[in-house]
Structures are given as structure tokens and as C-alpha cells.
């Protein structure tokens, strides 16, 4: 079932997307699916984000649509009610964790330090976001924590590029990486969906 989906195994690159309207979100989602990336993390950074999640869930068959940038506990239920199928937060507090857990949806709480990873493991959560990945230590950080904390598995996000993605994907504790490079602002603004499809196809071909 949806609640059992392994978020780290759906796609090698999770597209992190900002949508300025529901229609824009749907067009981006279709372009990503056409390129072979049937998943999207729609960030709650615009007024249109919840409408975009609802529209994508309704209008784009076969895509896994989640809500990103969950920074307040109240966001979790709003996103779930809008049709989000998973949740992602940039960091973790106790109340954020409980709010995401209460939805029953799969989720990736953000971590950036060994202590935060330990706290998540203590709460029984092994699938994590590592954010901001490049700024917080990059692939070297994840390589270092694989020894002492082998149970933790990550989706690193933040500053990752097509050039740096393979070094993350080669690590045993990385399932996928996240990034916004698939949806350049100028491509979105000009409606260049073919360019997004091409970037998605290149990302979909990355090997884990
Ligand atoms: C996120 O919310 O995960 C990041 O903003 C995405 O990071 P990037 O824009 O550096 O890819």
C-alpha cells in the first residue's frame, strides 16, 4: 500500500519543486513523468503549493506526489488533506515529528548532525533527509556516519548537482538524492517543459 512505499527507492533523484500555480505544478509533474521520474516533492513555499499538490494528485496518473518544506506541525495535516502521499521536512523537532507521524503517511524528517540522526533512530525512524547536504558535510559526512549508524538511510538534499549526485548515490546509506536542478526557474517561467523532461531523463538514468 501507499503507506508502505519505500520513499528512498522510488527514483534516484527526487525532484524538489516550487510551483507558483496549480497549473504550473501539473505541467512540471507531467514533464518529470515524461522524463522517467514519477515522483515530485512539491515544497510548501508558495501560496499555491497545496492547490498544486491537489491538482497533481488528481490530474497526473502514476506520480507519487509529496509535500516538502514542512516546517510547522500544522503543515502536515494540511498537506495530507490536499492529497500529499508523503511528507518531507528540512529539520526535525518533536512536534514536527509527531504531526508527520499522525498523518500515517511515509515521511522523511530532516537531519544534519549525528545527534539528530541518533534522535530519529531512537524514535524508530530510519529513513531520513540529510539537509543541507553540501553545506553540512556532503558525501563525506554520510560516508562517516555509515560505520557507527548503519541503520540510518538518507536522501541528501541541498546544493546537489548532476555532477555531485553520483558520489552520493554510490554510498550504501543513500537511497536517492533530492534536488531542484530539474526545474530551473527560467525553464519554468518560459514553459520550457521539454527541457525539464530532458533533465529528468538524465537524472532518471543515474545509477544507485
Ligand atoms: C530542499 O528543500 O530540499 C532544498 O531547497 C533543495 O535544495 P537545492 O535547491 O539546493 O537542490
TrEMBL record:
InterPro entries: Aldlse_KDPG_KHG, Aldolase_TIM, KDPG/KHG_AS_1, KDPG/KHG_AS_2
SUPFAM superfamilies named in the record: Aldolase
One example GO MF annotation: 2-dehydro-3-deoxy-phosphogluconate aldolase activity
Keyword Transmembrane helix assigned: no
Pathway: Carbohydrate acid metabolism; 2-dehydro-3-deoxy-D-gluconate degradation; D-glyceraldehyde 3-phosphate and pyruvate from 2-dehydro-3-deoxy-D-gluconate: step 2/2
Catalytic activity as recorded in UniProt: 2-dehydro-3-deoxy-6-phospho-D-gluconate = D-glyceraldehyde 3-phosphate + pyruvate
Source organism, top-level taxon: Bacteria
CDD domains: KDPG_aldolase
Record key words, sorted: Carbohydrate metabolism, Lyase, Schiff base
First-level EC class: lyase
EC number: 4.1.2.14
Pfam name, any one: Aldolase
NCBIfam families, per database record: eda, PRK05718.1
Subunit description: Homotrimer.
Family stated for the protein in its record: Belongs to the KHG/KDPG aldolase family.
Protein name: 2-dehydro-3-deoxy-phosphogluconate aldolase
Species of origin: Nocardioides caricicola
Amino acid at each position: 500500500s501507499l503507506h508502505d512505499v519505500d520513499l528512498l527507492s522510488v527514483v534516484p533523484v527526487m525532484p524538489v519543486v516550487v510551483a507558483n500555480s496549480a497549473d504550473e505544478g501539473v505541467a512540471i509533474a507531467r514533464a518529470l513523468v515524461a522524463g522517467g521520474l514519477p515522483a515530485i516533492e512539491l515544497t510548501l513555499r508558495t501560496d499555491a503549493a497545496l492547490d498544486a499538490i491537489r491538482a497533481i494528485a488528481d490530474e497526473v496518473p502514476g506520480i507519487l506526489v509529496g509535500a516538502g518544506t514542512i516546517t510547522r506541525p500544522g503543515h502536515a495535516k494540511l498537506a495530507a488533506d490536499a492529497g500529499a502521499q508523503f511528507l518531507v521536512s528540512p529539520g526535525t523537532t518533536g512536534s514536527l515529528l509527531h504531526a508527520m507521524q499522525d498523518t500515517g503517511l511515509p515521511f522523511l524528517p530532516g537531519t544534519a548532525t549525528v545527534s539528530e540522526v541518533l534522535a530519529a533512530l531512537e524514535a524508530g525512524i530510519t529513513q531520513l533527509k540529510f539537509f543541507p547536504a553540501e553545506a553540512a558535510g556532503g558525501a563525506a559526512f554520510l560516508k562517516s556516519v555509515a560505520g557507527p549508524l548503519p541503520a540510518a538511510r538518507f536522501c541528501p538534499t541541498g546544493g546537489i548537482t548532476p555532477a555531485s549526485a553520483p558520489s552520493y548515490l554510490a554510498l550504501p546509506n543513500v537511497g536517492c538524492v533530492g534536488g531542484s536542478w530539474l526545474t530551473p526557474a527560467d525553464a519554468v517561467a518560459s514553459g520550457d517543459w521539454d527541457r525539464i523532461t530532458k533533465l529528468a531523463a538524465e537524472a532518471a538514468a543515474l545509477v544507485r
